[in-house]
Amino acid sequence: MLAQNDKAPTFPAAPVKKGFISLVRTLSITFLTLIIIVILINNSLYIYFLFNREQSLVVSEQNSIARDAANAVKGFIDDKFSVMAQSAYVSDLISTTSDKQELVMNKLIGLIPSLRQLFLVDEQGKELQKVSRLSNPIQLHLTAADKDTLLSTVKRNNNYISVVYFDDLTQEPLIIIAIPTKNVFGDVKGALIGEVNLKFMWDLVSNMRIGNNGLAYVVDRKGNLLAFADVSRVLKRENLSGNTKVGQFITGKKEENSQAISVSKGIRGTAVVATFASLGFPDWAVVVEMPIMEAYKPLLSEAGLSILIILTSALGSIMLTIYLSKRLINPIIIFRNAANNISSGKLGTRVDIKSQDEIGDLATTFNSMVSEIDKARGDLEQKITERTQKLDQKVKELEKFKEVTVGRELKMIELKKEIERLEAKLRFGGEKKKI
Questions:
Q1: pLDDT per residue over 346-359, tens digit each?
Q2: 42 burial via Cβ count (<10 Å: 0-12, 13-18, 19+)
Q3: CATH topology classification for 52-295
């Protein structure tokens, strides 16, 4: 990119000074730093908003799953109430004959597999009829206070449900439910009481799909485990009050509408994203858990993609920065080498940069300046030559003048000596005559 009038010179590389820092390096680092900062800020904001969006989606999805699971479990109990109430109303169970009562109740036992025993009582709690799946029917697990609560509840035309208890022999969880029985005028005249085996709820809970590897379980207000895929833990009457979500349910803290992902230790001791939904009636809750990696999978995928974009952008930025830095610095290097060449006396050097920008203008100006310097040097050399010639002529004239002047002086000296000699001779001849 450099040219000389006669022959293009070869420029020696400029000596590297101690402490010298290349502009290419400085600009590359500066541009790269700025680009990476912009990329990091942009992607950080993207990941932040992505995290908030995914978090809301995960929370919303889990709340929906928990609510659906709670509705399924609640439906398991509500179905029993509904079928019992419908049978009692259609057959006028409290007013019909004993044989028909037994027939209707046996049909109910056959229709609802989870019903272990059925009892029909009057307003005072006197037993009117009883049917059972057991070969040896047993008395209901009700204290006097429980029985009073049951009767007072149905008299107010409300359904009743007991706390969960466990069978002494099978260790299976059981509850007692009761509905009011009415006469044809709609007056409450007694109660139809059923003993429900909750082991039939285990399959319902075990079959719930919570993502790919999630799970669900049911607890009561005391934190007792009522239904879970691992039946042995239910049979051991495990209490989960130490579990974060179960503890929140026990204390009455609402979690269904929270928009923050809550990571806690799950029922199997692993880190999970969990939430719960209460049934209301009965006073139970369904807790759903999802492994943290599965819950965050969409976010991790997006984050991984963002990191890949950052790395790719950074690599591209490095290459682009180096290219642009060299493109910006190369003209400066050319000017530096040209200046070094000119300083060594090679005024025929020219910069061959034809870009249509400030650098191109500078190159044109630089070349014009060097041309003017070269021209001025030529003029100066011509003037010096002319003056040297004039000086030589003067010197020659002075030398000739000197020769003439010196010759005259020598002749005057000789003439003077001759005069002195003649005078001396004349003086000597006169003296001789006097003698």
A1: 777 787 777 777 77
A2: middle
A3: Beta-Lactamase (3.30.450)
